[in-house]
Amino acid sequence: MNLKQLSELLGLSQTTVSRALNGYPEVNEATRERVLQAVKETGYRPNKAAQRLATGKAGSIGLVMPTAPGHQSDVHFGEFLAGLGEEAVRHDFHFVIMPADPDDEVAALRRLAVSGNVDALFVAYMRGHDPRLAMLKSLSMPYVVHGRSFGSEPDYPFLDIDNEGAFYDATRLLLQLGHKRFALMNGPMHLDFAIRRRNGVMSALAERGLALDEDCASHALMTDEQGLLAMERFLQLPDRPTAILCSSTVLALGAIRAVNQAGLRLGEDISLIAHDDVLPLLKPENFSVPLTTTRSSLRAAGVRIAQRLIGTVKQAGPFPDQELWKTELIVRASTGPAPQQR
Amino acid sequence: MNLKQLSELLGLSQTTVSRALNGYPEVNEATRERVLQAVKETGYRPNKAAQRLATGKAGSIGLVMPTAPGHQSDVHFGEFLAGLGEEAVRHDFHFVIMPADPDDEVAALRRLAVSGNVDALFVAYMRGHDPRLAMLKSLSMPYVVHGRSFGSEPDYPFLDIDNEGAFYDATRLLLQLGHKRFALMNGPMHLDFAIRRRNGVMSALAERGLALDEDCASHALMTDEQGLLAMERFLQLPDRPTAILCSSTVLALGAIRAVNQAGLRLGEDISLIAHDDVLPLLKPENFSVPLTTTRSSLRAAGVRIAQRLIGTVKQAGPFPDQELWKTELIVRASTGPAPQQR
DNA sequence: CCCAGTGCCCAAAGCGCTTTCAATTATGTA
DNA sequence: TACATAATTGAAAGCGCTTTGGGCACTGGG
């Protein structure tokens, strides 16, 4: 069933039917009713590809999903998507997801953009000096970046959390508790958030004349395995750290396993603060020792970004171009005073 | 840059350029080279919406993602998507994801199908007597169902795991270990896999003249909270179960927390077998007591379904219509002989 | 020398929709 | 009663692509 058939059925022109459906004012209310009724009966749905071709809009936002045979799926991605979806469903938007090899993201993004079947782009996994920014700017298509790109001029629309502030505050708390030996379990160093969090830690330490030892910084994929490995390394250090900053509750999961296996007690021998993206699966309060965290909901960020993206496409009012969300520092049981000097 | 411009630039007709790009034989090799070269220089990409409109194909597979403000995002969904994506990227396919209220899935699916921007559909979260099947059959669009629909004629293309067999085997193992009092922590009862797993447990029990007590069966969302709550309930039973069958490692996570909080030892006081979808975050071997599991990779299922879907769209050879994968029963430390009668 | 066959290429139709421009009828106003 | 004005509706162009149905220039066998 297409427009033509529907209009013939109704004895109207395609024009009128189209107008009736799209809420144009110049159509008689009685006629509109009749059209709507017929749509209900026939189950007619406009062909999106045709609509897109005719209007240039298609009610879809595009994103690329990094994936590869060895590539471990990322819980953060799913959670973020849920947030986007929550908002999208309210506006009858959908997503076009282009899977792409992680090394091919910039090309994939360009392909997606020029493919002509998305109205706006969402970009994540930002890196320092991210090469995608230049491309996006040249594109004349709305986009919002989740995160920022360290080292690039901040002249692009983004939503980010204050990673540096979060880790600065967390570090200060641990300092106040008397800790002197710190370690950082971070995400891959090329990612923006990792750079900023590291900076946050280092500047808090610097204020006390401390530095972050190279041996005490791990930059790796945020999986529980990597958390385990990193923590094992830390614990074997001659002068092992007593305070751990951790970029994700996923890493913390592995880290805590290592702590337990070493027979140490979390919150006493070792204090740990993790960043909490509010993953449904990894609630800090459900850890055997509830985790002190810096918190910011990934899902809420998804909702907000979808709002901005969709709002822009629909030309609904101005949106702030750049948002920086504060995180909350929530103290639970995984932090405690520094143990007495051995 | 569109076809028209490109062809004018080359002094060729749109026809020839189009043919050159799509690998038709009736175009001079030299001409084709010239076209390809121009494409490289101009960065021309065909408009997907126009292609779709003209050909009816667009290289995309559609799926609906259940989502709602309160709706907890599902790790299983993300993991499955990763599998789909891994295969899709090889064929330059993408996804169109329609977010939808969980109560609106059948309508959302129809909208997606008739929207005309997907070539095939993937359907999950199957229920008993699933109403979507009838709709899908009437659609004349390729689709593959992940799972099955209990109570419906099995005359549709699906890929499923042998849920009944898995839980039958798991139950038998526990019976052999001497357990007499069983409990089942399952997903929502309207879902197909939950029905079959339950049946598997019950038929194994029935062979020994045992039955599954109503108090010892929990059907709820597969979250760690629900796992915790269910297990707490089980443990308060006057004659508490010693053997637990668990539909997900996510549920197991909560369940084990309850076991620990009750001061009981997993694998001794309580034996537990969970189904393992091979989620990267929840490796059974990484639990404090490594989990005995029935295993089947969700991601592998995603890859396979994408193969079938894409293969069908591309008319590449026949694919089996129905696949039932066996699961593996992997014994680790969470199962042990039934404790002596108290 | 003629004609069927082959190799290449093009004009134009059509996919299903939106939107401009124009036509027709109804409604007031002078 | 006559004419400007508003209220509805339609015809047709166009979005960017694929594909059908020719057309033209060569070849080579008869």
TrEMBL record, chains A, B:
Gene3D superfamilies: 3.40.50.2300, lambda repressor-like DNA-binding domains (1.10.260.40). Keywords: DNA-binding, Transcription, Transcription regulation. SUPFAM superfamilies: lambda repressor-like DNA-binding domains, Periplasmic binding protein-like I. Residues 1-55 form the HTH lacI-type domain. Pfam families: LacI, Peripla_BP_1. The keyword Transcription regulation applies. SMART domains: HTH_LACI. It comes from the Bacteria. InterPro entries: HTH_LacI, Lambda_DNA-bd_dom_sf, Peripla_BP/Lac1_sug-bd_dom, Peripla_BP_I. One of its GO terms (molecular function) is transcription cis-regulatory region binding. This is LacI family DNA-binding transcriptional regulator. It comes from Rhizobium pisi.
